Each structure stands twice: as C-alpha cells, then as structure tokens.
Amino acid sequence: MTIIRPKIQLLDEKHKAQILLEAKNILETLGVYIENEQAIELLNSNGLNHKNSRFFLPSDLVDKCLGDVPSEIILYDRESEENLSLRDDNSYFNPGSAAMHILDDATYQRRKATTQDFIRFSKIVEQLKYIEAQSTALICNDIHIEAQDWHRLLICLTNCYKPIITGTFRKESFKIMRELLLACRLSEDDLARKPLAIFDAAPSPPLKWTDLTTQAIIDGAKSRIPVEFVSMPLGGANAPITLIGSITQICAENLAGIVISQLTARGAPLIWGGSPSMLDMKYGTPPMSAIESMMVNIGGVEMGKYLNMPTHAYMSVSDSMIPDTQAGLEAGMGILLGALAGINVNSGPGMLEFEITQSIEKLLIDNEIVGMVKRFLSGIEDYGKPFASDILQDYQKKEQLLTHPTTKKLFKTELFLPSSIINRMSYSMWKNSGEKSTRKRAMEEASKLIKKPPIKPIKEILRNELNKIASNYL
Asked: Whole-structure pTM over 0.90, yes or no?
C-alpha cells in the first residue's frame, strides 16, 4: 500500500474562487473577441450581447456550460485498446506539437524537418516506455503547406499505435483528419466512444478566439473528438506581469472556449490547458521553461482541476538550443513539477528553443526523466511492520543483504532501473566504455530503437486505407 501520492499546490481554495469569479467578470464586462462566423451566429442565436465581434458572456451561461463538460476522457490507441484515463491526478507525457526544426544528430545543427525525420521520430516514440502518447511533433517542410497538418497525422497513424495530440493549420483540414481517424474505427459513434486523438485549440492572447482555432472547437464538439485548450499568455507583453494575473487570463480564455464548445454540443469532451510564458526582459524572448512560466502553468491547471476538468500543460520543454546541462535541468524540473501537480496531459519531451525545435536525443533523455518521476509518484510502499528490524537482524548472520529474500523479490519494484543512457558506472568502467556523454549514449540508443520491430504493427488493410484517403487530397 502506497502511503501517499506526492503532490504540489500553489493556490488555496480562497484564491481559486476569487480567480474564477474575476475571470467570469472579465468575460461579462470586457468580453471576448470572436472571429469565426459560425461561432458568431451561434452566440447571436443565444441572445448574447456584443459590440461588433466582441461578445460579453454572462456568468450564468458560463456556469451552465461548465456543468455540461465531462470530468474524464479515456483515450484509446490505434487498435482501439483503452490507453489513458485523463482524470484526477493521472499524469501522462507526450512530445509537444508543431516544431519547425529538428536538431540534426549528425551535424548538431538545427534544420527544417522532413517527412523522413518525422517517420523516424514517430517510430522511436512508439518504443519509449514512459512517453505514453505521441503528437504531431514536427512540421514536414517537404510537404505542401496545405497538406502539412493532415499529413503529420497520417505519419503518426502509420508509424505509431499510441494516442495522438494534434491540431489543424487550416479549417479545411479537420474533415480530412477526421476521415483518417475514422479509418481506424468502425463508425463515427465508435470514434466518439473510443477517441484516438486530441485536437489543440489555442486562443490568441488576450481574450481572442481566431477563426481557425474557434473552428477547431466547433468541429471537435460536433464530432465528439476531444479538444484541448492551449492558452498562451506572455506575462508582461500580452498578459499581466503578475503570475496570478496571467493565471486569471488563462481561466477567462478557457472559459470562453468552454462556452463555444458546449453551445455547439452539450457534453463535448474538453481539456483545460495552456502553454504560458513570462517575457524575458533582457532578451525579449518567451522562455517556456522559466520557473515563473511553470508556476503559471501549475496555477492554471489547478483552476482546471477546481472545475473538475481534464488538464494539460507544456511542462517538459527547454529553452536551450541543444540537449545540454540547461536542457536537463529545465526539462527535469518541468517533468517533476508537472507530475506532482497531477497534470493529465504533459507536453514537451524532446522540445528545445521555445518549443520550435525537436531533438531525438533530448526525447530519449526526457523519457528517462519521466521514468524516474513516475517512480517518485508511486511513493513509498508500506509492506507491513516491522519495516526494517527483521531484515537487519538477518544481516547479523550473513553481513550482506544482496541475497536476502526481500532484496531478490522487491528490487525491481523498489528501484527504477534506467537504460544505458543514464550513467551509473564507476569512473574506470566509464573510461573503458569510451567516455561517452549522455547525449552520445542517447544517440546510440536511438539507433538501436529505430531498428526494433513495431510494438503494434499497423495492419496492411488499414495502411492501404489511410494511403487511399491521403491520395484523394494530395
């Protein structure tokens, strides 16, 4: 029996209530800017006051819509097997989405990613034990811009069985992407009951839902495909410099998205989330892994949990350019804090440079960190009394405990056993094995993983169906 599940918390109940009240007041008095014509028609049909395209959302409507949002989303893999339960403090990890570059492991230089890069990336993600979901992690620059979003989904479905976090670049793409997902299910109802993918929808700060992202909410709601909000306040630039002010803005933007979704289809599945940052006043950059960014993320997630919704955040990224010491400390801190906060969907393993570069080496290193953190989350086990005295009494007889029954029985449970990426050798062993850096060991591990057969190979009939759909739009 685990004694306690380790947790972390930044907001008390009093401040959560105050933040929610102010966020609802912001929507009622300042309003939210809506670009999408379908959403405007929807809000008008519900008699909402507006000034041009700025709509004012009454608190009672927000409360009503909140009451319709499901408190749990269960994701299934490509083979329709139950995979992830997004509820309570269950914490899962996936690579973040839509990086423009990949860090070339031969030249150590970033470059535009290609289809072959993403195929390799996806095949490696499938082999990683602690990265439970995949994502449309890279933009394939060798693909025409009009096909880039759905083409990434095609690569994911073809090369990895795990649930997917994705999103659209064009409104027209949702139909194609939905068609690809339907190929993996028996019917539209089957896809709704066994969702395979989550679609991101990001408001533009402050308090604006654009034509594209609003359409993602509407399309997801109509199809009962989960939509994940990614609120992106930049503290000191387009959001308050105070952490609590940025958290309040996240809350208001998410609430507006909830209203659009639930007015479209009551009970549509949603995930409360964000990817906030605080403006670096020295360089003018948006550091996603600044400690304050992490704090805003956790505070924002606590508001989602306060409202009994599944949650998401970018909590395992690094702002470094390469998988160096900075990348390790930032990703390690983010992964641990995200897990302790009980964030359901943690995005970012592998990501560098303000979320615009992916690195396979960092992805593998982050996988090890996630494994360690999951061991931490499992807590301390109580096997019954006495805790140590009997074992120590046996030590008196043999002066060692390596062969003790409890050691042999429990060492695989009590100890996290990392891969060869993590160095626990003695100095002489390390010297004799080539004095390899962590990054070098990760590169070697990647070479091994890419040669492994798929854990769940795609059925040929499904591959052909996916390719047939794709050929209709190329």
From this structure: yes
